[in-house]
Amino acid sequence: MLTTTLGRTGLKVSRIGLGLAAIGRPGYINIGHAGDLARDYTVEVMETRAHTLLDAAWAAGVRYFDAARSYGRAEEFLAHWLSARGIDPAEIVVGSKWGYVYTADWRTDAEKHEVKDHSQANLLRQVAESRGLLGDQLDLYQIHSATLESGVLEDPAVLGELARLKNDGLHIGLSLSGPRQAEALRRAMEIRIETGRLFDVVQATWNLLEPSAGPALAEAHSLGLGVIVKEAMANGRLSPRNDDPDFAGRRKTLAAEADRLGTTLDSLALAAALARPWADVVLSGAAAGDHLHSNLAAISVAWDAQADGRLDVIAESPADYWGFRSRLPWN
Fold first, then answer.
1. pLDDT tens per residue, range 265-317
2. Which residues contact 257 (CB under 8 A, 6 or more apart)?
3. What is d(CA 146, CA 210) in angstroms, rounded to the nearest whole number?
4. What's the longest Cα–Cα distance across the chain?
5. Under DSSP, is residue 301 helix (H, G, I), strand (E, B) or coil?
6. Which residues contact 130 (CB under 8 A, 6 or more apart)?
7. How many CB atoms sit inside 10 A of residue 257's CB?
8. Backbone angles phi, psi at 247, to 5 degrees
9. CA 271, CA 233: separation in Å to the nearest integer?
10. d(C-alpha 237, C-alpha 209), whole Å
11. Cα-Cα-Cα-Cα dihedral of 149, 154, 156, 162, to 10°?
12. pTM > 0.85
């Protein structure tokens, strides 16, 4: 596993990290998620499954792990694993996020799985919960899905509390979503405190179907922000599981390029993100060991300019991409 430094934070991270969205709660929007969990959603089984996956990631050299308050019991599962394995905080980087409240009550058919709340009161509550579970293992705390529409980047109470947390030793970041990711990031880069920029890290969606945030992420990286790429597989749309007839033509293009580079569809998608010069960490969202190991093979893919040229054609408009994503079923 290759490693790098996350922007100017000084944090040493693996180039591929593990996101815990798919293993901390029964429901998620990844294609085939229910099958990954074998539809067995007892807390004990899910925690055992999570620990097995975390063990596999650790053994393979993964050293960045990403959770959130809204990922069900992800922080709890991660905290128990860190304690049980006796992992030194200096050997690992843990990031988590605040801003969504988990509301599914451990159900896959919930009307609402999570509710956005970017208020100062929720920040205070959720950072206490995250620290209560993760303690000094928590290195990076991020706004979960910061958007211009939510107003979180204009809220002096929230920004002031984030500055206090930064002065207290936490690195501060934000994750982005939606077709206006680049605008939100550029607004975030303008926010300053006495010691410089407030935000140390940005986590954004970038993949072969939705590359629009790339120029803004390159700008952020050039200014010293760490860059984490999420959803590099487009919630499974860039995996072998996507059998949508409307995607057949693009899948054929992807398969031809995967064959040329001697890899699989999923590792091709992650390799595309790893090849961006501004990307520090690319997250795997695997929920099963075989998928994790297939994702990790992206490290050895010899990406080239020819791949970029051949795959540019499959990109969607941001509006189409995010509209499709909003219709993916929780399973």
1. 999 999 999 999 999 999 999 999 999 999 999 999 999 999 999 999 999 99
2. 268, 307, 310, 311
3. 18
4. 54
5. coil
6. 69, 75, 96, 98, 138, 141
7. 21
8. -100, 0
9. 10
10. 9
11. 80
12. yes
Distance CA 213, CA 45 (A): 38
- If one counts every other C-beta atom within 10 angstroms of the C-beta of residue 307, the result is 20
The answer to whether 137 and 91 have CB atoms below 8 angstroms apart is: no
Exposure b/e, 127-152, CB count within 10 A at least 16 = b: beebbebbeebbbbbbbbbbbeebeb
Query: Is the separation of the CB atoms in 25 and 34 below 8 Å?
Result: no
User: For the domain 3-243+277-286, what is the CATH code?
Assistant: 3.20.20.100
Residue closest to 178 by CA, chosen among 19, 28, 30, 320: 320
Provide the token pair at 73: 């019991």
DSSP E strands in 163-272: the ranges are 171-176, 192-193, 196-197, 201-205, 226-230
Euclidean distance between CA atoms 4 and 102, whole angstroms: 32
Task: List, for residues 52-70, the tens digit of each pLDDT value.
Answer: 999 999 999 999 999 999 9
Residue with tokens 């969202």: 285
Distances (CA, A) of 185 to 176, 196, 199, 200, 217: 8, 16, 10, 12, 8
Residue 179 carries which DSSP code?
Answer: T
> Any idea where the domains of the chain sit in the sequence?
3-243+277-286
Count other C-beta atoms under 10 Å from residue 40's C-beta.
10
Q: What is the identity of the amino acid at 1?
A: M
